[in-house]
Each structure stands twice: as structure tokens, then as C-alpha cells.
Amino acid sequence: MELNPTELGPVINRLKRAQGQLAAVTRMLEEGRDCKDVVTQLAAVSKALDKAGFAIIATGLEQCITQQDASMNTKDLEKLFLSLA
Q: How far is CA 60 from the centre of its chain?
């Protein structure tokens, strides 16, 4: 199953924001910032990545249902979903 980039615009934007947040976490560590602040930002990055992953899986599921894509079956989608757990 190929993903349509135009349908994933919000996911791409979310990943770009997460990339910036991760760079900020690295910078914070290099600067010796407070542990609480670092972990808070790291948690935000993790949540953004999780949401992006679930959005990608949801898009794939929708494509499988509407287009009857034979390249992905229910077990494949379940495996992808659980890989984010």
C-alpha cells in the first residue's frame, strides 16, 4: 500500500514540528537544562510521533477499506498498530 502524500499533509507537518522539538531537547541537554524541562519536551516529542503513527495507520486502514487494497490485510494493519503500543 502506497500512502498518498496529499492526504498526509497534517502528518508531515506534525513530524516536522516533532523534529524541531527533538532538536530543542538535544540542545537543552547540551546546555545542562533542568531535568523536568527536558523530560516535558521529550514527552511532547514522543506524543507527536505516536499521533503521527496512528494517523498514518488510520489512513492506511481507510485506503484498504475504500480501495480494497490487497497488499495489506487485517493482520498487517494490526501488527503496525501494535508496533506503536
A: 13
pTM above 0.90, yes or no: no
**Residue matched to cell numbers 522539538:** 21
Amino acid identity of residue 45, one-letter, is: V
Tell me the pLDDT tens digit for each residue of 44-60. Answer: 999 999 999 888 888 87
**Architecture per CATH, 9-83:** Up-down Bundle (1.20)
Q: Are 25 and 45 in contact (CB under 8 A)?
A: yes
Residue type, 21: Q
Interhelix angle for 35-67 vs 74-83, to 10°? 170
C-alpha cell at 43: 514527552
